[in-house]
Amino acid sequence: MVQEFHKVGVVGLGAMGAGITEVFARAGFEVTGVEIDDTALDGGRARVAASLSKAVDKGKLTGHEQTAIEDRITFGTDRGALADADFVVEAVPERLDIKRHVFTDLDRICPPGTILATNTSSLAVTEIAALTSRPGKVVGLHFFNPAPVMKLVEVVGTVISEPGTVELAAEVAKRIGKTPVVAGDRAGFVANALLVPYINDAIGLYEHRIASREEIDTAMTAAAGVPMGPLTLADLVGLDVCLAVLDVLWAEFRAPRYVAAPLLRRMVAAGRLGRKSGRGFYDHTREDVAEDL
Ligand code: 3HC
Questions:
Q1: What tens digit of pLDDT does each residue of 66-77 get?
Q2: Residue 146 beta carbon below 6 angstroms from any ligand 1 atom
Q3: 116 and 252: one domain?
Q4: Which positions, given as ranges, span the membrane (predicted)?
Q5: pLDDT reported for residue 292
Q6: Is 287 part of any domain?
Q7: Nearest to 17 by CA among 29, 67, 40
């Protein structure tokens, strides 16, 4: 069945949506990427172009391949362009009110057979599915940052998933070169339920001055062989995203390990969100590392 999939839609072209668009286009799908306005659209287009150009610079892609990939992507601000999409991935900000608009629109615009996938990391897929008249065809498709690089895609089914929907989404994930892991709709799914409390613990160590941020990061890269230490990773993921995941874990399970470190909450309140805002635990506006917090 997945062989009949040709046209994919991606709604939201931030860091995740742009990466997802690139991944689908690289795998040979025709992709329509939709943003809310021209400014956001320009940003999304630039993200995809920069990522592909980097791959060309590194010799991993030829200029010809880059052009072919870009030719498979149509950018626009009109969700109506998704009327003939077979499969749509939503990657808009993690707010239910925003997702509600998107899913209500998609449900109206797309044919009844279209699978609607959400890249949510902190909202319940079931709640999003229930916003539509096709809850059985709504599935979680959770990519990891940076989407073009990370192999894992969590495929999240719900109690109202139609038979075959999860399997189909997992096949799509394989078709785009990812490793699907099927998970139930539970706060944090699998990876974030393990990863984000670990990041939170690292923030707690830093907050209590047990070690410097560099020492904490080095401890884990050197001890566990991870490519990034937890504070560097928090900056990559986004501190707001980390906090949102912890808050849903806490809301769902009320376990002490899910209580967000006070410093994390304060940094989000201060707008220090990590790479996307230029500053998190590290300063991303400068090549050299800034003073400690
Ligand atoms: N787009 C495309 N390719 C990229 C990229 C991007 N944004 N960023 C890096 N790459 C590629 C590079 O081109 C390079 O490819 P090559 O080895 O074939 O030349 C490769 O990835 C390694 O990149 P770099 O050499 O530039 O830098 P690093 O070796 O430091 O790797 C990293 C960067 C891939 C980000 C690596 O540090 C890493 O894997 N970090 C961990 C990331 C992680 O754990 N992500 C999951 C976060 S959790 C999440 O997203 C879930 C959410 O819901 C919270």
A1: 999 999 999 999
A2: yes
A3: no
A4: none
A5: 55
A6: no
A7: 40
